[in-house]
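Contributing new records

If you add data, match the layout below exactly. Sequence lines come first and carry their own label; structure lines follow with theirs. Keep one chain per record. Anything else will be rejected by the validation script.
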Amino acid sequence: MAGTRRLIVGLGNPTAKYDKTRHNVGFVVLDRLIGAGQFRSDGRAEALVADLRLRGRPVTLAKPQTYMNRSGYSVHRLLLRLALAPQEVIVVADDLNLPLGMIRIRARGSAGGHNGMQSIIDQLDTDAFARVRIGIRGAFERGRQRRFVLTPFTAEERPAIEKAVMRAVQAVTTCVTDGLTMAMNQFNRRVAAATDSAAP
């Protein structure tokens, strides 16, 4: 429905220590969405939140401050406060399984090894919520996945991830204004990453 509020959740870890890390790209997308606006603290949900309109549609932006593994707590509390269903949530998160810079939108699905996504699925007892995933895949040694996602993007990676963040902002806006099907048709295309100029 045109007037239904949507909850847009960006996943990441709080504190300046994690600001520029790969795992915090969900926070970055929400910072771009809010523009010159400001987040406020919602103590009960342990999140930073902001209410605004995307092309006239009401949305609440939320950045859980619980650390990644407990993101679901914030999402659950916010859904209760806003009286929204899981289907009215859009989660924006990094994805280690996707090539750097690729965008993928899904209406539901597994966590794919992402602890923040798994926490939301566990707390809501469903995987039926939309997600906009941003590829961060890169080279790391076996068993070093956690270290990799908690390190900053390299200088070589930054142009690709900057472009992906802007596309994710557009993708979220399209999800809200034109629906998931339109957004998936528009953004779920193979795009050339920084090291992948010959994409099929």
